[in-house]
Design a protein that fits this description.
By secondary structure, the chain is of the alpha+beta class. The protein has one domain: 2-Layer Sandwich (Ribosomal Protein S5, domain 2), CATH 3.30.230. About 35% of the residues lie in helices and about 30% in strands. The chain has four helices and ten strands; from the N terminus they run E-E-E-H-E-H-E-E-E-E-E-H-E-H. Helix 1 runs parallel beside helix 4. The protein is globular.
């Protein structure tokens, strides 16, 4: 089973995440940030992941610590669930439209973290989620999950549509890249993706 259960407790947040890469798209999400909950539900459903996220944080300050620490913990859970990454497809990309928005996501589950996120949100807030924190979430997820992530906005005017198409594209690309397709050998000329 490619699963992980991680907790992160700081003076600012308390995060608990359970992840099953080979799930059925079941989600139980509660972060206190409604738009983040909605996006994580998209990630689970379209990525065929079973994902439980319980987060509490200093939302009386703002959403920053809760969003960031959720991304840190989810990224680490993803890295743990992938294990040595032997036999996975490794590379994938998806383009997803949502009305006027069109987003392309490409990723490499290489074990080497990198992110290039080019999203332009018309508004500073998407519900309770600051727009810049949506980008920071993706960058942090890539870093902690040890994957190369490229996100390109090809079209879009509506903040919600742009972000939701992004998470749906990420989910589908992750689903494709994480699937086991080989006999257990690492999809690399190095012979390993573990570091």
């Amino acid at each position: 089973m490619r699963t992980a259960q991680l907790d992160r407790v700081t003076n600012e947040t308390n995060i608990s995440i359970s992840l099953n890469l080979d799930g059925a798209g079941r989600a139980e999400i509660a972060t206190g940030v409604g738009m983040l909950d909605h996006m994580l539900n998209q990630l689970a459903r379209h990525g065929a992941l079973d994902l439980t996220v319980h987060a509490s944080g200093d939302l009386h300050v703002d959403a920053h610590h809760t969003v960031e620490d959720t991304a840190i913990t989810l990224g680490r859970a993803l890295n743990e669930a992938l294990g040595d990454r032997a036999g996975i497809a490794r590379f994938a990309d998806r383009s997803v439209p949502l009305d006027e928005a069109l987003i392309h996501v490409a990723l490499d589950l290489s074990g080497r973290p990198y992110s290039a996120v080019a999203l332009e949100f018309p508004s500073p807030m998407i519900g309770q989620l600051p727009s810049h924190m949506a980008i920071h979430f993706l960058e942090t997820l890539a870093h902690e999950g040890r994957l190369a992530l490229h996100v390109r906005q090809l079209a879009g005017r509506n903040d919600h549509h742009i972000l939701e198409a992004t998470f749906k594209a990420l989910a589908r690309a992750l689903r494709d890249a994480a699937r086991v397709v080989e006999d257990g050998s690492a999809p690399s000329t190095k012979g390993t993706l573990s570091g």
